[in-house]
Amino acid sequence: MILDAFRLVGSNALVTGSRTGLGAAMAIGLAEAGANVVIHGSQDTGIDKVCAAVCATGRKAVRAVADLADPKSAEELVSLTVAELGSIDILINNAGIIRRAPAADYPMRDWTDVLSINLDAVFRLSQLAGRRMIQQGRGKIINIASMLSFQGGALVPAYAASKGAVAQLTKALANEWASQGVNVNAIAPGYMETGNTAPLRADAARSRQILDRIPAGRWGIPEDLAGAAVFLASPASDYMHGHVLVVDGGWLSR
Question: What is the pTM of this model?
C-alpha cells in the first residue's frame, strides 16, 4: 500500500531548532508518522511541550539543549541521538538565526554568528550523521533552505548567503552519498508565521506587499511543512536526491 511508504515506524530522528515554530511542527509530524525524535533547542523554553506532543503519539522524545555556535555541539547531539534512540536515521537541519541591517553597515560579528549556525553547524551535523548513515546503508538528511536560496532579499546579507549555501551544500552532499543509501534534500519554506518573520508581519505595509504576491493569499504556518518533512524522511522519497522542495504558497511562481 502506498501509505506504508510514508510510515516512519522504527526510525530515529534529530530535529534541530525544534522547540518552537517550523522545527516543532516537523518534529511532531515525524512522530505522528512513527519516528522517535530528539527535540533540540538553544534554551529550555518550549522543549518539554514539544516532547509531550511527541510522547502523546506513542513515540519516544529526547530533550537536548545545545548552542550550535559551539563547534562541539554537533558531535554531542549526534552522539546523544544514537545513545538514547539507538541510531540516527533522519536529520533535519532546521535551526537558524537571522540578523537584519543594511549591507553597507552590516556588523561582521552578525555575519559570523549567522554563518556559524546557518551553515557551519549544518555541514558539521550532516557530516557526523552522514558517516553513521553511510555505515548503516541508509539515512535521510533534510536541510531547511529558504526563498533566499533563490532570491537575494534585502537587509539580510548573511542570511541570504547562508541559505544560498545550504541549497548548494544539499546538492554537493547528495552527489557523494546518493549511491550509499543516504538521501540529502532540502525544504525551502516561503513566508511563514514564525519568530524570524515577526518584524515583517508587524510592518503593515510590508506584510501587505508580501501577501499580495502569495497566490495562496496567506502566510504559511509551521504545520504546512510537516507533510513535506515526512515525505522526504520516508521511503516514499527514496529516489529523490539533491532536491530543494519549495513550500511557499506559490510565491516563486508569481
Answer: 0.98
